[in-house]
Automatic annotation (TrEMBL):
Cofactor(s) needed: FAD
Species in which this protein is naturally found: Anaerovorax odorimutans
Statement: the UniProt record of this protein carries the keyword Flavoprotein: yes
InterPro entries noted in UniProt: BaiN-like, BaiN-like_dom_sf, FAD/NAD-bd_sf, RsdA/BaiN/AoA(So)-like_dom, RsdA/BaiN/AoA(So)_Rossmann
Residue span(s) of domain RsdA/BaiN/AoA(So)-like insert: 186-330
Highest taxon of source: Bacteria
PANTHER family to which the protein is assigned, alphabetical: OS12G0638800 PROTEIN
Protein's recorded name: Aminoacetone oxidase family FAD-binding enzyme
Start and end residues of each RsdA/BaiN/AoA(So)-like Rossmann fold-like domain: 4-384
Pfam families in alphabetical order: HI0933_like, HI0933_like_1st
Keyword Secreted: no
Length: 387
């Protein structure tokens, strides 16, 4: 039996493709016991589907790859995506920060809708079916695992992030064997680790609108301290640029100035925490790093130590040692080179009938729904190509 089309991977990109494209004789191969495992984790289980506003504003949220996927984002844009879900009975809500979620805040409802629509389009889903081989035949068909034959195949197997969900990068060697260029996968949207991290005891403390710089890239957004690394949107969205030996610089209180402490009878830690509205425990560590006694009166601190504390608050500089790895990465930087596919249809240039979509491609977006939007946009572009 020859299938009309097959999808490798039952995640967001593959299921949206199936929801938009009649199967003919179609089969989805999912390595896990159930599809959509990573989708269920997105947005901490609430599924940040996309972002509000103009699709034109999305381009800058994909690093250097953004301009290359412009046409795909425009064709399968956020408004079209939201219409797809709302017309099928899933109410959506847009938060004040622009993030779009199902009103129920349940990722399971997103998955259920996609599965239902894929089923209505005639797709069969076969779980517990990892793909170990993909071969292109001279007659234009494809063999999967040496026994399944199809006229078209859509690779939607994801990248390497959250490998426990099945997104473990196992398709990349298979695609590389076909002669496709694979850009080395690296963790993206991942906490950044530094040498001599001083805030291990402050895990959970956050800062609103901190200014973070990694080499020549900067972003002002929320910052989170963990037990071993820097995290939060400001760091996660810059993590694609993190390389060992690179410089991470943080301004925790942009625009703030430490006032003169002369005559102030409060403890130094109280003076610093109250005047700058920063957590007391953080102020204590800053003062100790500056060589000052947090319990001493603010008025007794040497001006040089206050200047050192101010420098740490406004330009805390670290040498990057790496990232927290794929186990805690929300996305993957790297994958199949964008030069290997037509970025309007996502059809492979070397193998007509082979499509590659979603996180399997060398594109990664910021937090806020941008990665799921690309998964959906690329799935939509590939689906419309074959109709």
């Amino acid at each position: 039996m020859i299938y009309d089309r097959m999808i490798i991977g039952g995640g967001a990109a593959g299921l949206y493709y199936a929801a938009c494209c009649p199967a003919g004789r179609g089969l989805i191969l999912e390595k896990n016991d159930s599809p959509g495992q990573k989708l269920l984790l997105s947005g901490s289980g609430s599924c940040n589907l996309t972002h509000g506003g103009s699709i034109k504003d999305f381009i800058g949220h994909y690093g250097p790859g953004g301009p290359k996927i412009r046409s795909a984002l425009y064709k399968g844009n956020n408004l079209l995506l939201m219409k797809f879900f709302t017309e099928r009975g899933l109410a959506l809500t847009e938060r004040t920060d622009g993030k779009v979620f199902p009103s129920s805040m349940k990722a399971s409802q997103v998955l259920e809708l996609l599965l239902r629509q894929a089923g209505e389009n005639g797709w069969e889903i076969r779980t517990g079916s990892p793909v170990t081989a993909l071969e292109a035949e001279k007659d234009g068909t494809f063999f999967i695992n040496g026994r399944l034959r199809t006229r078209q195949v859509v690779v939607a197997a994801g990248g390497c992030s959250y490998p426990a969900t099945g997104s473990d990068g196992s398709m990349f060697p298979i695609l590389e064997k076909l002669g496709l260029e694979i850009i080395e996968p690296k963790p993206a949207l991942v906490p950044v680790t530094v040498q001599q991290y001083p805030y291990g005891e402050l895990s959970g403390i956050s800062f609103r609108n901190a200014l973070v710089r990694i080499d020549g890239h900067s972003l002002k957004d929320d910052l989170l301290l963990t037990h071993s690394s820097f995290s939060g949107p400001a760091v996660l969205n810059l993590s694609r640029y993190a390389r060992p030996g690179s410089s991470l610089r943080i301004d925790y209180v942009p625009g703030a100035e430490i006032p003169n402490a002369a005559g102030d009878r409060r403890k130094a830690v109280t003076f610093l925490a109250d005047t700058l509205e920063i957590p007391r425990r953080f102020a204590e560590i800053i003062l100790r790093r500056a060589g000052a006694d947090p319990e001493a009166k603010a008025s007794s601190l040497a001006a040089s130590k206050l200047r050192t504390a101010a420098a740490l608050l406004r330009d805390d500089t670290f040498s990057i040692s790496g990232t927290s790895g794929f186990g805690s990465a929300m996305s993957t930087s790297g994958g199949v080179s964008l030069t290997e596919v037509d970025l309007k249809t996502f059809e492979c240039k070397k193998y007509p009938g082979l499509f590659i979509i979603g996180e399997a491609l060398d594109i990664d977006g910021d937090t806020g729904g941008y990665n799921l939007q690309f998964a959906f946009s690329s799935g939509y572009g590939a689906a419309k190509c074959v109709l």
